[in-house]
Amino acid sequence: METPKLNLFQRLWLEILWGGMRLFAMLPYWFKYYVVENLFFCLLYYVLRYRRQVVWDNLRNSFPEKSERELWIIRRRFYRTLAEIFVDTVDLAHKSTARAREMLVIADCEEQARRVHGHDWIAMLAHFGCWEYCSYWGLFEPSQMVVAVYHPLRSPVMECLYQRLRNSSYATTVAMHDCVRFYLRHRATGIEGKNMVLGLIADQNPPRRPNSHWFRFLNQDTIFFDGGEKLARRFRLPVYFVRMDRLQRGRYRMSFELLYDGAEEVAENEITERYVRALEQMIRERPELWMWSHRRWKHKR
């Protein structure tokens, strides 16, 4: 991924931020997750009241069958999750493989590695729990490189900072607009001889187009990014839905559900439909772990 050019002040600010994150990552687990996280939760929930109305409207429209008391509990737990994700993200600066293996366990890891060994494939993710941990797959299957497809940030300093957090010997990043070209360039040889795992977060709010396909999702008409489906059908790549289960603060279990095997003949939008159904089920099971503060339903049918 091309790194933005920074002036002297921006480089200095980048190094200050990075140094602070590295120091934070060295702190004890209990201090980060039971002191800093609790303080950040109070700041978000009680002081800043960060997007409280957006969160409330999203929950109320998604779960009309729930009482206000139930929705209030979900909302409060969501802000706990949001504070924890902040700690999780900053803590990625540790760059320790041993620590990464403590943070994430993979269900049926050997079986999943056997299924995808020697092949490129697509991992369809969501803003659920700490999605950044998904890049650790390359630690468990060293023959594969995770390629995180994302929207570049407007701030060049924050863009460089996130690239440092996300890029490693087992993961790299590529901008969404360059995804297809990137895959074509590396399709034959892989990256450093490794097969590619294209990680796409598909639950963001995409631009509305005249031919946008609408899905019924959480009781609302919703548009989804279809880049994963287009890549899968064009290059005959298997698609897996990535499920994240929170075990405790800062600890997750990741599992995979096959959505498309790369050979099946499927109708247009069928792969995305399967993703939507799997995502909806996961959200209904643990609603507090999804990113309710996003303005997900800005577009109306």
Biggest β-sheet: count, sense, barrel?
Answer: 7 strands, mixed
Q: Which word captures the global form? A: globular
> How far apart are the first and last residues' alpha carbons, in Å?
36 Å
Overall mean pLDDT stands at 94
Spatial order of strands in the largest sheet = 1-9-8-2-5-3-4
Give a brief description.
The chain has 301 residues and is α/β, with parallel strands linked by helices.
What's the SSE blueprint?
Elements: H1 8-25, H2 29-48, H3 52-62, H4 68-91, H5 97-103, E1 104-106, H6 109-116, E2 121-125, H7 137-140, E3 144-150, H8 156-166, E4 171-175, H9 179-186, E5 195-201, E6 214-217, E7 220-223, H10 227-235, E8 239-248, E9 251-260, H11 270-285
Parallel strand pairs: 1-9, 2-5, 2-8, 3-4, 3-5
Antiparallel strand pairs: 6-7, 8-9
Question: Could you explain how this protein is built, in words?
Answer:
The protein has 301 residues and is an alpha/beta fold. It is built from 11 helices and 9 strands. It has helices at 8-25, 29-48, 52-62, 68-91, 97-103, 109-116, 137-140, 156-166, 179-186, 227-235, 270-285, and strands spanning 104-106, 121-125, 144-150, 171-175, 195-201, 214-217, 220-223, 239-248, 251-260. The strands form 2 sheets. A 7-stranded mixed sheet has the order 1-9-8-2-5-3-4. Strand 8 and strand 9 form a beta hairpin. The longest helix has 24 residues, at 68-91. It is globular and about 50 Å long. The protein starts with 7 loop residues before the first helix and ends in a 16-residue tail after the last helix.
